[in-house]
Write a structure and sequence with these properties.
The chain is of the alpha/beta class. 44% of the residues lie in helices and 19% in strands. A 5-stranded mixed beta sheet has the order 3-2-1-4-5, sandwiched between helices. The protein has a 5-stranded mixed beta sheet with strand order 8-7-6-11-12, sandwiched between helices. Strands 9-10 form a two-stranded antiparallel ribbon. α5 (176-184) packs across α7 and α6 (205-221) runs antiparallel to α7. It starts with a strand and ends in a 27-residue tail after the last helix. The chain binds fe (ii) ion.
Length: 335
């Protein structure tokens, strides 16, 4: 019964989790929160992760009731993500693997989300909608790869929400996107905003720059409230991803949609996707918010699958990479 420790830190969250044969034994996480209006830069984010990661790992081991001797591998995020935070996590993973004489498993972050979603969502062969601060992709499994059917041509959906939240001066705690969701619930007026879907791809940069340009005037004149603006942003952006998700379901002939990534926690997005799925006789897989946001357990789960088929990473090949597309990974653990 292999137990795998997974380490994640590709953006502002850093985590350590342990998975053993489909059971999540522990999942510790910390978030680097910056003051309202500011984002997180690679350097300070990496230093934050360096400060907290060792405590997270010992916490994850004690939550699981395991010692280093009980582990069978150390999985870590190789990319994609921000350079400095990725490098911090990789250094710790390499050091522990040598100290404890365990194999290393370098995991693609997006594949981590998908494998965790497959474990929890009990989906056999879903279309995956991955929406987060750094990624927006629609994927399906075919011929040993998670194929990218569609993606954003510029900004990620979560990045668009977060940047607009910062524009409005909303708190970064727990995330600007969550505070947008709270305001959007009180919105009454739907403004017409740029809606850009090209086949199965989406684009959010025009939507964001349009909003940035019109917001001061609309707020000053009282034509729209911050609540209306957040509501309109969500309705427009979520309709775009729902449209491409529906097209992907039709193209893949799939009956299940798996929603993963930080934006998956948004209840309005879940509602829109559930409506779309039920209208076409498909199903939105259940969402567990603890494991949607970046976490160590998802890296452990993907690492567990990779270890099972011997897809381990040599020390000499364990460098991190900021650009690492989901379809670069050969998925040998699935039929
Ligand atoms: Fe992520």
């Amino acid at each position: 019964m292999p137990a795998v420790l997974g380490l994640e830190g590709s953006a502002n969250k850093v985590g350590a989790g342990i998975v053993r044969d489909g059971r999540i034994l522990s999942n510790r996480r910390e978030t680097f929160v910056t003051p309202p209006g500011s984002g997180f830069a690679p350097g300070p984010t990496g230093r934050h992760h360096r400060r907290v990661l060792l405590d997270l790992i010992s916490g994850a081991l004690s939550d699981a009731g395991l010692g280093p001797r009980d582990l069978d591998a150390i999985a870590f995020t190789r990319g994609p993500g921000m350079g400095a935070p990725l490098a911090v996590v990789a250094v710790v993973a390499r050091a522990l693997a040598q100290l404890w004489e365990l194999p290393l498993v370098g995991v693609n972050h997006c594949v981590g989300h998908i494998e965790m979603g497959r474990l929890l969502g009990e989906a056999r062969d879903p279309v995956v909608l991955y929406v987060s601060g750094g990624n927006t992709q629609v994927l399906c499994f075919s011929r040993c790869r998670y194929r990218i059917l569609g993606e954003t041509l510029d900004l990620a959906l979560g990045n668009c929400l977060d940047r607009y939240g910062r524009e409005l001066g909303l708190s970064n705690d727990p995330s600007p996107g969550y505070n947008i969701e709270l305001l959007a619930r009180k919105g009454r007026r739907l403004l017409e905003l740029p809606y850009v879907v090209k086949g199965l791809d989406v684009s959010f940069s025009g939507l964001l720059s349009h909003l940035q340009a019109v917001t001061p005037k609309l707020l000053e004149s009282g034509e729209a409230t911050a609540e209306d603006l957040c509501f309109s942003l969500q309705e427009t952006a979520f309709a775009m991803v729902a449209e491409v998700a529906e097209r992907a379901l039709a193209l893949a002939g799939a009956q299940e949609l798996l929603l993963v990534g930080g934006v998956a926690c948004n209840q309005r997005l879940q509602e829109m996707l559930r409506t779309m799925c039920s209208a076409r006789g498909a199903r939105l897989c259940p969402i567990d918010e603890r494991y949607c946001v970046d976490n160590g357990a998802m890296i452990a789960q993907a690492g567990w699958e990779m270890l099972r088929v011997g897809q381990v990473t040599a020390l000499s090949d364990s460098g991190v990479t900021q650009r690492y597309r989901t379809d670069e990974v050969e998925v040998t653990w699935r039929d």
